[in-house]
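Case study.
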Amino acid sequence: AQTVTQSQPEMSVQEAETVTLSCTYDTSENNYYLFWYKQPPSRQMILVIRQEAYKQQNATENRFSVNFQKAAKSFSLKISDSQLGDTAMYFCAVHYNQGGKLIFGQGTELSVKP
Amino acid sequence: DAGITQSPRHKVTETGTPVTLRCHQTENHRYMYWYRQDPGHGLRLIHYSYGVKDTDKGEVSDGYSVSRSKTEDFLLTLESATSSQTSVYFCAIRSGTGTNEQFFGPGTRLTVL
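After joint prediction, the assembly is written out as follows.
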């Protein structure tokens, strides 16, 4: 079975500091896509960052970056200079080409404290 | 904004009644999805569609059916709602750019009493 695991149900960080959210997954495929989504209290699902498994270079979007370790099947999200608006639930997701489905982790609730 | 709307946004219904949720997109995407979100489970796929009249089951499809008679509309039906189907339901479309990103609607909160 293809699974995605986020082992940190809750995390907190002080404003302006850096935090890393962990995600691991299980697959036998070689080509797939990985995503981090943010869900603020408004409930809207917002795409934060995308990583293609065939790319060795880690993706970066402004203050958000990933550490993609393909052999270890690990895909962590680093948020630099945390802002109060980063407070949200964060979901890791993996798109598997077989079946064309997106599998989500259970989520990490991040609180940014002033 | 991927042009996805869901209706209704909130619904309260009673056990045993049929319920239909609607997802509407304005950008002619081929793939559309229905998920449910429950605490501790993230989002789980119910059904998806890869074209008009082409649908397939996801991991939690029992008790749900879908229909897609037009590219822009994807309907999710609970034939006889149960309390276990109380959840937040999200519709999504898959980007056609080849990157497999999915973009989500605003969600529907359904409560089955």
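Observations recorded in class. The radius of gyration of chain B is 13 Å. The longest strand of chain B covers residues 42-51. We will return to this complex in the next lecture.
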